[in-house]
Specification:
- By secondary structure, the protein is mainly β.
- It has two domains: 91 residues, RimM (Elongation Factor Tu (Ef-tu), domain 3); 62 residues, Roll (SH3 type barrels).
- A six-stranded antiparallel barrel has the order 1-2-5-4-3-6. A six-stranded mixed sheet has the order 10-9-8-7-12-11, with no helix packed on it.
- β8 and β9 form a beta hairpin.
- The chain is elongated, with a radius of gyration of 19 Å.
- The mean pLDDT is 87.
């Protein structure tokens, strides 16, 4: 069941006494998070549907309120819980050249039409996203996810092409 959903954030804490939460999410995704409506809170291996009433962004996190909760006692049991969205809905809010991490993991990496490795993860160093690529030789390489290096992403074929650069995939 959970394969139909992807995580996008976490309830870090409560905020005030009116049922607001402190929401943790990936930086740079404010416009994407702001478009969300129905989300799911994971609790005891089940997903509880809730709806955002509003989301306000701060420097370090976001303050949000769900329509279903009116006071601190309503939200306290969910402190530390992970938030999910339906996978198909997540794709609707993506900009051009934006991809879901879940879609990238497991994709094959090619350089000059030659298989070079598989994406095992995605991270961010503060400046750019990095693809973790397990190479044919078993090494792990970090590839900056920028247009100058990643020249093609084909979700349907599960294939990414990158520019040949000495030492990048060893």
């Amino acid at each position: 069941m959970k394969s139909k959903y992807i995580s996008f954030g976490k309830i870090l804490n409560f905020h005030g006494i009116k049922g607001e939460i402190k929401l943790g999410y990936s930086k740079g995704r404010e416009s994407w998070v702001a478009k969300l409506d129905k989300v799911y809170i994971e609790t005891d291996e089940k997903l509880v549907p809730v709806h955002f009433q509003y989301v306000k962004f701060t420097q370090k996190s976001a303050i949000a309120k769900f329509k279903e909760f009116d006071n601190i006692n309503d939200i306290l049991p969910y402190k530390g819980c992970i938030l999910y969205i339906e996978k198909e809905k997540a794709g609707e809010n993506l900009e051009e050249d934006e991809y879901l991490i879940n879609d990238l993991i497991g994709m094959e990496v090619y350089v000059n039409d030659k298989f070079s490795g598989v994406i095992t993860g995605v991270s961010n160093n503060g400046a750019t996203d990095l693809l973790s690529v397990k190479t044919k030789s078993g090494n792990l390489s970090l590839v900056p996810f920028v247009k100058a290096i990643v020249t093609g992403v084909n979700i349907k074929e599960r294939k990414i092409t990158i520019t040949e650069m000495e030492g990048l995939l060893e």
